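In the previous chapter we treated chains in isolation. Here, by contrast, the input contains two separate entities that must be folded as one system, with a combined length of 226 residues.
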Amino acid sequence: GAGVSQSPSNKVTEKGKDVELRCDPISGHTALYWYRQSLGQGLEFLIYFQGNSAPDKSGLPSDRFSAERTGGSVSTLTIQRTQQEDSAVYLCASSSGLAGGLAQFFGPGTRLTVL
Amino acid sequence: RKEVEQDPGPFNVPEGATVAFNCTYSNSASQSFFWYRQDCRKEPKLLMSVYSSGNEDGRFTAQLNRASQYISLLIRDSKLSDSATYLCVVNKLGGFQKLVFGTGTRLLVSP
């Protein structure tokens, strides 16, 4: 079946603008994660959704970042008033959500550049 | 101490060589372990899970040492296409199913 998809693949924006990044997880996966990766760096956890539970927002770097997941499927990550330090690749992953931290499958990412 | 630690490398090996990476983790109660592969400017992709009894997938062998809290990845008969960054991944205990990703070990296989 189809893997995780993300859009747009690339986004260039001006400092101060808002951006929305979209993730469509693997069908049937109940867990969805957002990460970001700066050039040459490791993955930074942002937020996690599991079914209908309240999301784990512990990784969001500031209140300019928010995310929602509608209908338990598609998720949108919103960054308000973007800053240059927000430039990174934003990766979405999904997993089947069973207990024990099962493997996550990643989308191709959205490369965000803030000018 | 970091939750997951890896030698960043790079490991430079010739084609056909055998190479091994280790990764240490800090939480002795961790239960799930994985190796991911990440090519330059691409997303991480699951390479293999790591089971307590060790597991093998073709040229790749993964092992877990709980006593010393490390996992290893052995690659035999290296191919040019094995050049990538290998991420060690361990589950983070708690109420949520989070995985902690190491920063990766870079492998360069040369002709």
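Chain B touches chain A through 20 residues (CB under 8 Å). The longest strand of chain B covers residues 84-92. Compare these points with the single-chain example from earlier in the chapter.
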